Amino acid sequence: MISPIFLFRQLKNKRPLNKYPLFLKRYRTIAIILVLSGLLGPFVLQQTFYPFFRFGMFAEPIRREIQQEMFALSGIRADGSYEIEISAYTGINKSNLDYLLRNYYYRDEAHDFLRKISELMDASPFDTITILRIIKQDTSVVARYPTWR
Amino acid sequence: MEIRRRHIAFLLLILAFTIATFYFFWLRTLVTQAYKGDAPVWFMSLTEMLYPRFEVEKQRFELAFFQNKADQVIIRLSGILLLTGIAMRVTNVQHFITRNSRSLTEKQMDRLRQIFYLGLLFFTWDWYRDFPRLVKMEAFYKGVHLFRILQIDIPPVDVLYGIFSVYILSILLVLFNYHKVIFAVSTAMILVLLQGFLFSFEKIEHGYATLTYACMLMPGLFFETNQASREGPNNSFILFLIQFTITGAYFLSGAEKLLTSGFEWASSDTLSAYLLMHPKKAGLWLIEQPILLGLLPWLILVFQLSSIVVPFYPRLRFFFIFSGVAFHWGTTLLMGIGTYLSPWIFVYIFFLDLDKLNVKSLGKVSKINSSQNDS
Question: Whole-angstrom Cα distance, residue B162 to residue B14?
Answer without folding.
Answer: 51
